[in-house]
Amino acid sequence: MAEKQTILGRIGQLARANINALLDRAEDPEKMLNQLIRDYTNNIVEAENAIAQTIGNVRLAQADLESDRAAVQEWGAKAAAAAATAQRKAADGDTTEAARFENLAKVALGKQLQYEREVASAEPLVASQADTAEKLKAGLAGMKDKLSQLQSKRDELVARAKAAQAQRQVQESIGSINVLDPTSEISRWEDSVRREEAHAAGQAELAASSFESQFEALEAEGDKTEIELRLEALKSGNPAGGVLPPARTYDELES
Known about the structure:
Helices cover 89% and strands 0% of the residues. It contains six helices and no strands. The protein has helices at residues 2-15, 19-24, 29-91, 95-179, 182-236, 250-254. The N and C termini lie far apart (153 Å). The mean pLDDT is 77.
């Protein structure tokens, strides 16, 4: 019984363990959870074996108790039958047989009394053992539930750790991309192309301006030539454009 109480105490202690408090104190929570799961699994196996033995012993004790109770009834019935036979034999005048059956009734009553005492002694013990077995079963169920919590916690922790590691790798990759961003090279190349395009546009504009100035010079030269020709025509009195009006002096025009 002391050993079973020790097992019950260990089960209760493990079942009441605060997982979060244990993890807060752990340097490596995943490693500690794996160890806890192993410990819980081993303790559950040990507890199951002990509890199975305890339950088996309880069932045997209960069976013995029921057998003793049945013996009480059986010997009581035998005592009653022997006493009735003794009375009938006495009534028939057969004192010898009456005395024999009376003695048998006394023996049966003695057996009944013996089994009654055994029943009275065994009942509280069997009840206590049955109660202990139920507590052990409840504690074992608590351990299995705690084991399930530990496994879920471990799986959650591992998943979170992997997600955090992946996120850190992504951030580190993004950081390296920011340092050597290929788009920045494209941007610099684009600026270079734009400068080349601007240079070419400037050259084209200068070329166009030069052509325009040449044409303007040519037109100006043409006007000058036309003016000279017309002046010569005026002087000769034969304008190229037709009949000249009568010649007038500048003074006449001014007046």
